[in-house]
Amino acid sequence: MKEILMQTYTAALPILLGYIVWLLKKQKQDRDSNNRGTMLLLRVQLIDYHDKYMKLGSIPSCAYENFVEMYEAYHELGGNGMVTKMYDEIQELHLASKKGEYCDE
């Protein structure tokens, strides 16, 4: 009886471990895809903010806060230097006065 159990474990264990490894790889691929998609969406929004507020020459404080938070998330996901250059340019903009300027984002 003991011998049959050992043979069953010996046959089943590699199959079970292989399945677990496959599941973990699949989860990593899904997570990597989600991270990549999030990074691309952040980049599009950061470029949009940059273009809009560089043309205006100033940025409302709430838009500035949004830009900084999006940049930090983008950077943590492994974003590139192109957006860092945009971040540096946004840093140089003046914050818009509260009169007549508000965030519509």
Using brief descriptors, characterize the structure shown.
single chain; 4% strand; mainly alpha; two-stranded parallel sheet
What is this structure's SSE topology?
Blueprint: H1 2-56, E1 58-59, H2 61-76, H3 81-92, E2 94-95
Parallel strand pairs: 1-2
Helix pairs in contact: 1-2, 1-3, 2-3
Describe, in plain words, how this protein is organized in 3D:
- By secondary structure, the chain is mainly alpha-helical.
- It is 79% helix and 4% strand.
- The protein has 3 helices and 2 strands; from the N terminus they run αβααβ.
- The protein has helices at 2-56, 61-76, 81-92; strands at residues 58-59, 94-95.
- It has a two-stranded parallel ribbon.
- α1 (2-56) packs parallel to α3 and α2 (61-76) runs antiparallel to α3 (81-92).
- The protein starts with a helix and ends in a 10-residue tail after the last strand.
- The mean pLDDT is 88.
